[in-house]
Amino acid sequence: MRWILLLCLSVGAVGCAANGGQGAQAVKEDKLTVLPEDSRWKLVSSDIEGLQAKASEAVRLEIAGGTLRGDTGCNQFFAGYSMDAAGAISMQPVVQSKRACAEPERNAVERALLDALRELQSASQRGDELVLHTAAGRLVFADDALVAE
Prior knowledge:
Number of strands: 10
Distance between the termini: 47 Å
Low-confidence stretches: 1-24
CATH topology: Lipocalin
Oligomer: single chain
Strand content: 35-45%
Structural class: alpha+beta
CATH architecture: Beta Barrel
Helix content: 10-25%
Mean pLDDT: 84
Radius of gyration: 19 Å
Number of domains: 1
């Protein structure tokens, strides 16, 4: 009985290792050379310090006409951008409204998000998700129309 259990565990481990350790649901990530125009996104995850807080659930992003605009959960922001043929992103200065955030956690999220956007380097698409790569880490957005509130 113990041998059967060990055999089953080793077969599962080999199958997982053959798939890069990501399990059966791994989704290919494709580098983008153009951001999806006229699209709206909601931040669903990030590995950037300060953006894992519950307050980051309010972050929204819209891409239109060579501009990133959105909501930090406290203030509105926008910035122009351009991408070269290799997919490198060049950002223009990020402009934001100046409302005071009553909650310190929202201030921290706003600061971390805007700092990350200023250092935006490239983007990729993973299934229905838009992944923005910055010097500080990754911002993962889901299509706003597909995200349940």
